[in-house]
Amino acid sequence: AAPEEESEVITPPEPFPTYQTYAFQTEIKRGRFSIVRQCREKVSGKALAAKIIPYWQEDKQAVLLEYQVLRKLHHTNIAQLKGAYVSPRHLVLIQEMCVGPELLHSLALRTSYSEVEVRDYLWQILSATEYLHAHNILHLDLRSENMIITEPNLLKLLDFGNAQFYTPDKFITMDKCSDYVETMAPELLTEQGALPQTDIWSVGITAFIMLSANYPISSDVPCEFLRTARKGKLRLTRCYAGLSGGAVSFLQSTLCANPWGRPSASECLQSPWLQETGLDNRQQALVTFPTTKLRNFLMEREKKRGLLCSKYGLMIAQ
Predict the structure, then answer these.
(1) Are residues 223 and 189 in the same domain?
(2) Domain end: 69, 97, 125, which one?
(3) Residue 139: closest CA among 82, 74, 195, 206
(4) Which residues, including other chains, have CB under 8 Å from residue 72's CB and lie 6 or more apart?
(5) Could you say which of 86, 157, 189, 295 has the lowest number of CB atoms within 10 Å?
(6) What is a single Pfam family found in this protein's UniProt entry (predicted)?
(7) For residue 108, what are the contacts with CB-CB under 8 A and spacing of at least 6?
(8) What's the mean per-residue pLDDT of the chain?
(9) In contact, 190 and 226? CB cutoff 8 Å
(10) What gap in Å lies between CA 121 and CA 129, rounded to an integer?
(11) Residue 250: how many CB atoms within 10 A of its CB?
(12) Within this chain, do residues 140 and 248 fall inside the same structural domain, yes or no?
């Protein structure tokens, strides 16, 4: 069941549909700082997802930031917030139910996939990213684990627990990112802090993994990671054979060590590679990548995820 303590419905400036009570059901996913359960709106019977986030009182404002971000968002590729309430110990975010595998798992379920399919998913990720940046919001956790593929092949971006409102004079540090050094942008390891280009690095990492089943830089040690990233030498030999020149250029630009050298989300969407159609499209579809290596990559990543959940010892009232 949901947490039992007395709760307060959060009323946004633009009201949600009339608040209803929810029946909490099976656990869907457990992360470092939250648990997601399936829930049902009692009056309508509609299936929804409830993200339950425990917090200490001194962290309340930081936790509420996720709600403040989500209530502003309406985009096809972003899971929609339907309601929210807060108790003395938990924030509960009620969102649309997104049923399907995570991005990389959706690829790994196939026997093979092509560069064209990778481009389609990147287009959807960048469309959501462009929208966020236009609203001065940084996601700051654009890992594939936070992307669900629903039918029919629609990508939904989830988990805004790291999201921040951005202004050029605001210095944003990301302590919670240190658990995932392999996906951290170099500027997060310096005194520069997060920028819109930080999200573009994450998109580049996701693209690299889809096109290689590997990380471009492998190091769990921040200082070693930063030293390697600053050299700006991508190990493109880790990528699958047969990549187009457009794919290589996309990886090189989005994974530029200097954030100011990376394109914006809008510029990425206008890049020749993501705009290509016709004959080149068909040629790229002929080159396919077997998924054995990707499945092995995911097995190792799931082990790390399990260790992180154990490390944080997340407990939610049953």
Answers:
(1) yes
(2) 97
(3) 195
(4) 135, 137
(5) 295
(6) Pkinase
(7) 291, 294, 295, 298
(8) 85
(9) yes
(10) 12
(11) 26
(12) yes
Question: What DSSP string describes 185-229?
Answer: -GGGGSSS---HHHHHHHHHHHHHHHTTSS-SS--SSHHHHHHHH
Measured at the CA of 252, the angle between CA 236 and CA 267, to 5 degrees, comes to: 150
The amino acid that residue 52 corresponds to is I
Q: Are residues 134 and 148 in the same domain?
A: yes
List, for residues 141-194, the tens digit of each pLDDT value: 999 999 999 988 999 999 999 999 999 888 887 765 555 677 888 888 777 889
Residues 271 and 154 in one domain: yes
Token pair of 220 as six digits = 């769990």
Query: Which residue did the predictor score with more confidence, 249 or 304?
Result: 249
Sign of CA dihedral 252, 253, 254, 258: positive
Same domain for 247 and 225: yes
CATH number at residue 119: 1.10.510.10
The whole-number pLDDT of residue 186 equals 86
Residues 241 and 286 in one domain: yes
CA-based nearest residue to 228, from 253, 255, 209: 255
Task: Among 54, 74, 97, identify where a domain stops.
Answer: 97
Of the two residues 183 and 126, the one the predictor is more confident about is 126
Q: What is the pLDDT of residue 17?
A: 41
Look up the domain containing 156 and give its range. 103-308
Q: Computed from CA positions of residues 77, 118, 304, 111, in that sequence, does the dihedral angle turn out positive or negative? A: positive
Nearest 10 degrees: Cα torsion 272, 276, 282, 286: 30
- Per-residue pLDDT tens over the stretch 224-239: 666 666 666 677 888 9
